[in-house]
Every structure is written in C-alpha cells, then in structure tokens.
Amino acid sequence: MTDFIQMIKELHGGSHILHEPLLNKGTAFPEKERDAFGLHGLLPPRVITIEEQKQRIIKNYNSKQNDLEKYIYLMGLHDRNETLFYRTVIDEIEEMMPIIYTPTVGEACQKFGYLFRRPRGLYISYLDRGKIKAVLQNWQIKEVDVIVVTDGERILGLGDQGANGMGIPIGKLSLYTACAGIDPSKTLPIMLDVGTENQDLLDDPNYLGVKHCRIRGEEYDEFIDEFMDAVSSEFPKTLIQFEDFANRNASRLLRKYRHNYRMMNDDIQGTAAIGVAGILGSQKITGRKLEEEKLLFYGAGEAGIGIGELYSQALTKKGVPIELARERCWYIDSRGLLVKGRENVSDDKKPFAQDFNHLSDLTEIIQAVKPTALIGVSGQGQSFSQEAIESMATLNDRPIIFALSNPTSKSECTAEQAYQWTKGRCVFASGSPFDPVTVNGVTHIPGQGNNAYVFPGVGLGIVATKSSKVSDEMFLLAAKKIAESLSEADLKHGRIFPPLTTIRDLSLKIACAVGVEAIKENLTEIDLGDQPEKLIGKMMYSAEYQDYI
C-alpha cells in the first residue's frame, strides 16, 4: 500500500477523499481505488468516465434558469471535484467563461454573502495586523505559483464590494487554470478586508466582512507592506497579481512594489495589453499604421492610462519619441477633456495632458480632436451616444469603437448600437460578450477584449521561468502575440480577438515569449532551450484524472 493511500486512510477513513475537491473523482473512481480507499457502498456501483460525467454536468447546467444559477451550480462543482470542473470549463470555454467570470461574477459578488457555501482561499483583515504571516501559514499547501489578491474597493465597474469581492480572485484563478494550465492546487485567492465604504453592506446583516469604514493612509500602506513581506517570506516563488484595487491605490502600489516583488496589476497591465492587442488587430482591417492612430479615451482611470502608456511604448519601438507618442492619446475624465493648465490633475494623467481648449461634450470633443479610435474605460453604461458614434463614422471610414467597461450593464454602448450607427463600418470590441450583429446582410462577430487573453499566458511564462519581475515588455509581447493569432476568417467577420477555443494554445505562445524575454532581461537563471513551447507545454495542467495506485 502506497504512502498516498495510507495518508488517505489516516484522514478519517477512505471517505475523506470524496470531500477533497483536488482529489475527488466521484463516480469515476475505478474498482481498484474503491477497494484501496474503502469506497464501496459510498458510491453508486457503476464506474463511469470523466466524459460521461461531463455530459451529465452540461445537461444539469443547461437546465438552470439564469446565469446566476449556472454560476452557483459550477461553483458547487468546483467545491466538489476540481478536475471535472476544469475539464468541463476547458471544453466549453466560450459558453462558460462569461459565467465563471465577467459579467456573471459581478452579480455573484454583489450577492456573495447570500451565496457563500464553503470557504475558498484566505481572508486577511486589518484585524490581523502584526500576524499576517501566521494567517498565511494556515494555508496547508506550501507550494503556491500564483496569488490573486484584492481589497474589494473597485470590483469591475460595480465599485466597493468589500469582502464580497472574493469572487474576483476565485474567478481569475479559475481562468489561470482553464486558459493557461496553471495547476489549481498551486493557486491561492486572497481577500484583504480593510473595511468598506458601501453603506448597504455595512447595514446588511448577511455581510460577511468587517463592518467598519476602510482604513486609509499610512495605516493602509503599513498593512499592505506587511502583507507583501509576509507573502514573499512564506511563498517566495509565487506571482502576486493585484486585482480591482481603486484608482487611488492601484497605480501607486504597482509602482511601489513591481521592482522588488514578482507582482503585476491586471487592471493596469493586462488591460493595457488587451487594449493594444485590439488596436494592433484592428490594423489588419483598417489598413492604418500604429503611428497613424489617434486614441480618444472616455475615462482616465488606471485602465485607460495603462492602455495609453503601453501604446506609447509600442510607438517608441518604431522610433517615435515618447512625448510625441503620448500626444496621440487624448483623455476625457469626469471634468472633461484632459488639457494643460487644469488644476488638480493626478501624476498619472499629467504626461497625457494636451495643449488644447478645454471641452466637455463628447460629440464636440470628437469633432474637434478627430480621433480614429474611441475607447470606453469609464464604467459608465450607455455613455456613447448615437451622435458621438455617428461622428466617429463621419470622420473615419473604419472607426474603432471599444466599449471595454465591465460588466455588460456598464458597457459604454452595445455591439448592435455601434454597428448600426456606423452602418457596419466600425471595428468593435467590448469588455463583456455580445451576440453577433447582422447589418445589411453582413454578420459581424464582436471582439471581446477580455484580459483572459493576457494574464494567464503572462503568468504561465513567469511561473515557468521563475522570473524575478514582470516587465512592461512582456505585456507588449502578449499584445503582439494576440494580434498575430488572428485568422483570415476572424478578420472577415470583423473579429479582432481570436476565438476563446484557441486560448490555451495562445497562452502557451505568450508564455514562451514572456519566458524568452525574462531570459533576455536577466530576470531568470532557467534555460528554456531551443524548444520553449515543448518545455512549457509539459508544465500545463491537464484536467484528467490521475491514477492513485
């Protein structure tokens, strides 16, 4: 009898394995394992395959009445049998990604206190100050490749969800596994509960977080510092991904930690890469060069500034000075057009302030600035009016219209509106999925600018090489790989992001590019050899049951 079997036997008998989602096979346990673990009588007698199990899961999934019910059903499966969960999600990725992540995860976070069934990951509150390392030590698996952490202050476009934001790290890590083969046993979602300003949550008797206003300033910074030091001590090889931190903290924390820790911020760097990937992909349709684009961002938060900065860096590689590159990026924030001379402009925005008249109306700004691309990153649903989009179509034969805010209710416009108001001439992408749209007999497939095209592959490259840092060049390489993956069939339908069915192959290509870049930048001592795809490909998790004996 193997050591593994003995361990299971000692953990409250063989039935314990049925309650461990990383180990459980359910009705797929073969006879020899049922004998060894004492499972006879605890399971129905028939042994079925994982494919047969998956078909039963899909049938039950399709019987659910709405997306939230489907989410709850899949999360229940996640808590029972992770291998079957990932096999199902990987095989049905186009159908299920919008359920396990955006847009459905937004509604799930809003109702998290009512949906909570079983703990997953770690909750670290500001009440744990001075003992965060001890809390991390409660996590029994000591080899962690990726941590996704949030403080819940800016969940998608929904704002402060406090501890309910735990649904975001859980969902992101599901995508790390489904899209790039990161071993789920080596992932850790973390919720940093520093309070909430959401009065509805503070008044809700079912809210599971600390009922206190958010800590701010030096107290907050010391808490995050302690967390970062504790993680690097307990899990020195892990990649730390910051997720859904508010604008006031996201950029400055990235600047503060990125050079001393293996960390990244997906809302800034991942969104930047997917935005630039969309622009690069659109050029295969518009015929314009990168330096010919003029980008107008509706929203000047971390996402918009991130896209503009990475786009500017891409232009510098074509010989354009950074100052001139930034002049191709125009921003509208809550106070109108970002121009020089305005007061109280944050340091992140200042490099993009234009020498121009201050305007506030979107249509008026479009007509004055004459952009080739209108990019929505505002979190303000239906903020692109028909007049504004028609103005874009008047100025450009093939205008770029990106409505990237999540979830669907926060999208600046719908795909149907964009295509109809431009008579089918726009190149459209959105953050949340939209159905195909037919205009004048031509069917357009909206591109979904989902960060899942970016962060899983980048993360896989970092994990594979144990790169000490995550550089901006890696995200630019990811953007280029995404654009390069477009087929003629994709472009024919106006699609500027590849089908999700290809995402694992794409993630592998991105991981290889990231790994090679890590070696080039002397961030790793690992040698990928002359076949990096083969080497990294072997590391990718496959959702198949393993033989225990």
Summarize the structure.
By secondary structure, the chain is α/β, with parallel strands linked by helices. It contains 24 helices and 14 strands.
Keywords, separated by commas or semicolons:
Hemocyanin, N-terminal domain, five-stranded parallel sheet, globular, seven-stranded mixed sheet, Rossmann fold, alpha/beta, 3 domains
Description:
By secondary structure, the protein is an alpha/beta fold. 44% of the residues lie in helices and 10% in strands. A 7-stranded mixed β-sheet has the order 8-7-6-9-10-11-14, sandwiched between helices. A hairpin with a 2-residue loop joins strand 7 and strand 8 (336-337). Helix 5 (82-91) packs across helix 6 (93-100) and helix 14 packs parallel to helix 21. The termini are close together. The model has no long low-confidence stretch (mean pLDDT 95).
**So how many helices?**
24
**CATH architectural label of the largest domain:** 3-Layer(aba) Sandwich
Q: Remind me, CATH topology of the largest domain?
A: Rossmann fold
Count of distinct strands: 14
| Domain module tally | 3
Helical percent range? 40-55%
- End-to-end separation: 8 Å
Give the biggest sheet: 7 strands, mixed
Report the mean per-residue pLDDT as an integer: 95
CATH homologous superfamily classification of the largest domain: NAD(P)-binding Rossmann-like Domain
| Low-pLDDT regions | none
Rg for CA atoms: 24 Å
Strand order of the largest sheet: 8-7-6-9-10-11-14
Structural class: alpha/beta
- Please state roughly what percent of the residues sit in beta strands, choosing from under 5%, 5-15%, 15-25%, 25-35%, 35-45% or over 45%: 5-15%
Classified by CATH, the class of the largest domain is Alpha Beta
Outline type: globular
